[in-house]
Amino acid sequence: MSITIRLAERADVAAVAEWNAAMAWETEHKRLDPDVLTRGVSAVFDEPRRGFYLVAEHEGRAAGCLLVTYEWSDWRNGDLWWIQSVYVTPDARRSGVFRAMYADVTQRAKANGAVGLRLYVETENARAQRTYHELGMEQCHYFMYEQML
């Protein structure tokens, strides 16, 4: 089993947008506007300050991705890296693809002086929660609130 992780390139925009749409449907039964989604993925490449995508390749085929964005923490005087838009293709799930992407993000974060990693997970997604716990992540004591504008 061969898993490689690489920085996404602009040529990956269509695949990343497709995977984000699939993830939104699988986790929230939400249909995303394909044009808005494609522009949103492209915007990360237009402005690197927004973050970056990683793409996982499993046995020579693109098998998933994730997005890293940044949050400044004045309490810690450093950046927290947020892992978002995680998707692994159904045929590659439970084969170590996410673990390989997580290891890569961890290494990059340490090398760039980040003070921590964060992500959010659907409250019903027990399998993902177990995976994150097994990787050494801890459940936070915060609720997430939002107001879309």
UniProtKB/TrEMBL annotation:
CDD domains linked: NAT_SF
- The chain positions of domain N-acetyltransferase read 3-149
What are the UniProt keywords, alphabetically?
Answer: Acyltransferase, Transferase
The coiled-coil regions, if any, are none
Which InterPro entries would you find in this protein's record? Acyl_CoA_acyltransferase, Bact_Acetyltransf, GNAT_dom
Q: Superkingdom of this entry's organism?
A: Bacteria
- This protein is called GNAT family N-acetyltransferase
